[in-house]
Amino acid sequence: MVPNQLFSSDTDGEMAGVIEDKTAPADERYKILFTDNSQIPSLLYIQDYILTSPDLIHWKKMQASCWNPAGTEPLLGVFFNKVSNKFTILSRPDWGQRRVGITETNDWHYYTPLEMCLQVDSLDPALAEIYGMPALAYDDIFIGFPHIYSNFRQVLNTKYFEGTMHAELSYSLNGRHWQRSLRTPFLCGSHPQLVERDGVASKMLFLMSAMKQDNGEILLCATTNQHEHGCPPNKIMADDTSVSFFKLREDGFICLRTNGPTEGRVATREIIWQAGELSVNLKAQKATCAIYGQAGNDVKPLPDYTHEDCVPFSGDSTRWTPTWKSGSTLNAMAGKTVIIEIKLTDGVIYSFSGDGIPVMNQEAARYRRFGNLPQRKGF
User: Fold this and answer.
1) Residue 239 shares a structural domain with residue 299
2) Which domain holds residue 276?
3) Which of 248, 271, 288 is the last residue of a domain?
4) Same domain for 165 and 289?
5) Which tens digits make up the pLDDT trace of 30-47?
6) What is the tens place of the pLDDT at every residue in 204-254?
7) 208: which residues sit within 8 A by CB, 6+ positions away?
8) Do 242 and 109 share a domain, yes or no?
9) Within a 10 A sphere around the Cβ of 379, how many other Cβ atoms?
């Protein structure tokens, strides 16, 4: 039907996800998690299996590779989880179940029993459903994009009746236990750039992939259309379906913003500083950094590390390193507990990072008295 088509026109199925497996033999480096719909008329089951390729062009079916015994549909998340040292698959538990389940594998033949991972709750709109959750491993955490289908007429059969689809945010520290973020669209069909291009807000948006680039930016690929969440006829789809790419700044998933041109402050809890300097991702008319120490219940500014001593920053940077006029460095605080405060004027802060271990009050007190260092990574 089209140039470079991978499958014959009579293939009754869909690609649910594509992944690069750097641990696999060369001829199986790329994998498609495929959903085969050919058995639906007779068995009322979807068959889920894997296709492999050395080059993304030539594909063959992997034997004994059923990644969901119940059979499920596209719109899933798949990534290598370096916490469990396995590949994680986030998919619907069954055909038509609009929730997110989780299974893991280390060889693409044997999978852990699928467990429930995420579903809508009382903070979502009435009758809303999670249609799937594409996800990616991002530095030392995991980012998910739960797709929320809502705003349709409340009738007995809601499938294919009106409604909208948008992607929200979720996150996980281990790839298995997920928390949802703000219950607002991260990307939706009414995005200003989409409306400007298409002349109208799209009803459906599907965020298909998110990839971190070498320069730190995140490249997002989404499809949009004016019709329903299922597949409309090809002619209709060709008239209004678009593929869109977005660039997101490094760590730009969520931010803290000052209230207009006013001054705002954000501070950490105590951090056991290990070594090196702080890196801050922000935009601001003016920004300064101060370091505090804690003795008992008293928090005290450290000499030479005050806002007044800090060399002010102005502009946009994903890697601002605070410096102080005295020549003091955060590296000099290695082995001590510190509280870091950023002061912004007319600004936005996205993230900060460094070689330190965030701790709560009793952990910090035990460390100061006994030197007990928590056995976990920094931030």
Assistant:
1) no
2) 256-370
3) 248
4) no
5) 999 999 999 899 999 999
6) 999 999 999 999 999 999 999 888 776 555 666 567 788 999 999 999 999
7) 134, 221, 222, 223
8) yes
9) 13
